[in-house]
Amino acid sequence: MTRVFLISGLFSLLLGLFTVPSYGDIPFPETRGNAAAVIHADSGKILYAKDIDKKIYPASMTKIATALFILKKHPEVLNRFITVKQDAIASITPQAKKQSGYRSPPHWLETDGVTIQLQNKEEVSGWDLFHALLICSANDAANTLATACSESVAEFMKQLNTFLRELGCEHTHFNNPHGLHHPNHYTTARDLTRIMRECLKEPLFRQVIRTTNYKMAPTNLSQERVLNLTNKLILPGSTYYYPPALGGKTGTTKDAGKNLIFAAKKHGRSIITIAAGYPAMGELYEDVIALCEGVFNEPLLRRYLIPPTEKYTLRLGLLGKVSIPLPQGVYYDFYASEEEEHQTISFVPHATKFPIHRGDLLGHWVFRGLSGMQIRAEPLYASETIQPSITQKFRLYAKRAVTSYRTYIVLTLILLYYRKTRMHRHKSSRYYL
């Protein structure tokens, strides 16, 4: 276990709790949908929220949960051919579905919904179906993948909902793998961003959501199919093309409105943005781009832990106190919206012997949040060679002498024990002769 040494004076101030001053809010636009959120993709910190816990209908944003569950629990289906079942492509008109009081199986397709026109007993690769799920939002691909993972779509949904609860999605319940409307198929912006964070950890997911078009291989019942991406933020030449966008998922139904969740990266910052319940896609794209730019235009701030100084006394573990030059001081850069309200800061030494050469790692400034978890660590390097002082030399020689003396005593005792044991064995052997 690494031991942390505290230093009095200026350093004791750094080790105490402090409150981060307010730097003002990011100038986010007034969004026009029912719910919206922006979170930091790495930390999960909420940067913007509008009705983040409000119940929403996700439409085809549902498919990111389906994709995540397949990647986490059933990745084997991507590497084999799947036979399409009639139940996976059964359909009903939206009017009949509503008139029945939604008593029809919730996974049934709608006649005006997006499909790749899969046919009963068609044999399709799971790899192609996965691309169809996320690129062109094919509802029949979602159902077919579900039947490949479980004995039925209904059983797949039970497993998916359990998986999402374990993920921490407390206000989500999905009735089907594609997102076609059902009153009991709902989620929140908070839960969807949590799902998206997990999705971004999967390399295949990140690859597919950036794919603008894809050709499915011919099957036993169909010629080659061409899939085109629905997310205009990723399409070069589109009115709403947004270069920082990494990809995501759109979703549209009459009851859900226009929806989008996606990831973006700029200036080294990765964020997830969701906007739901819009009447028009144009307004949706305009708002999410404005939300992203609000984050990406936030000024980078700098906080000095130690101002620039010619000499600063630092304790380097067993080496004792060392005076080091800090011509640039010790500082860190941060965005006000991402910094925790309180932190503790400590120095963990790394150097263990003299001389310390220029460029050697002296140790790390370790930042921890209120929970005690490490937020980050900033290295501190020697800007010049550091030789031990006379006192430190004396201590080192004394330590070596003590160590040598102890070693001498231990070796002497071992030798005496060895000689005694040998003499005893010699006497015993003479007796028996």
TrEMBL record:
Keyword field contains Transmembrane helix: yes
Gene3D superfamilies reported for this sequence: DD-peptidase/beta-lactamase superfamily
Keyword field: Membrane, Transmembrane, Transmembrane helix
Matching Pfam families: Peptidase_S11 (PF00768)
GO BP: proteolysis
Residues passing through the membrane, by range: 397-418
Single annotated GO MF: serine-type D-Ala-D-Ala carboxypeptidase activity
Chain ranges of the Peptidase S11 D-alanyl-D-alanine carboxypeptidase A N-terminal domain: 29-275
Protein name: Penicillin-binding protein 5
